[in-house]
Amino acid sequence: MLHLISNRANTEMKKIVILGPESTGKSTLCTQLAMHYQTSWVPEFARQYLLDNGMNYTYDDLLIIAKGQVASEDEMTRHKQVNELLFLDTDMYVMKVWCEYVFKKCHAWILEQISRRKYDMYLLCNVDLPWVKDELREYPDLKHRLALYEIYKNILNHQHVPWAEISGSYETRLHMATNAINQLSQ
Q1: Between 20 and 30 A from 105 (CA), which of 10, 15, 66, 99?
Q2: What is the pTM of this model?
Q3: How far apart are alpha carbons 131 and 152 in whole angstroms?
Q4: Residues 6+ apart with CB under 8 A from 109
Q5: Any residues with CB less than 8 A from the CB of 102 and at least 6 apart, and which?
Q6: Tens of pLDDT, residues 22-57
Q7: How far is the C-alpha of 166 from the C-alpha of 168, rounded, in Å?
């Protein structure tokens, strides 16, 4: 179901954020959507940062990760053309949730970025895919994954950008996502 609230002008580049808990197919969906629409996507900066620096991250590391994510997005945005799509495998809402879920507080810079940065749509990936173990993943149990999903859903329900819930198999997710994106363009 597409939760359509408002549209921006059709002449602007459209930025679509894919978010959700760990192991919900976000990176796979970004890759599939970029291929489908023959465009590019911004990977999750945290993945490489944690691979390089280890999983013993601190609250201050999350600010470094957030700034790296924004820099990656801005760099990719500079290379895009009008009327193109850009898919993002996370945004500052994810950083806010991560900070608050792990450390019970959030950096002011992240909150400022949430209010400043503009997106055209969010795709919220459900937890109905099987868990895939990964050295960077922290919450394999369904209880935490469902709690995080509900946090993201609540955030999206209280903001003004259209969003859609994405669930099912990888193929079904791609179909749901393209339908939502195509509706946005109408």
Answers
A1: 15
A2: 0.89
A3: 18
A4: 63, 66, 67
A5: 59, 62
A6: 889 999 999 999 999 999 999 999 999 999 999 899
A7: 7
Task: Look at residue 130 in the predicted model and tell me its pLDDT.
Answer: 81
Residue with tokens 């868990």: 131
SS3 readout for the chain:
CEECCCCCCCCCCEEEEEECCCCCCHHHHHHHHHHHCCCEEECCHHHHHHHHHCCCCCHHHHHHHHHHHHHHHHHHHHCCCCCCEEEECCCHHHHHHHHHHHHCCCCHHHHHHHHHCCCCEEEEECCCCCCCCCCCCCCCCHHHHHHHHHHHHHHHHCCCCCEEEECCCHHHHHHHHHHHHHHHHC
Report d(CA 158, CA 161) in Å as an integer: 9
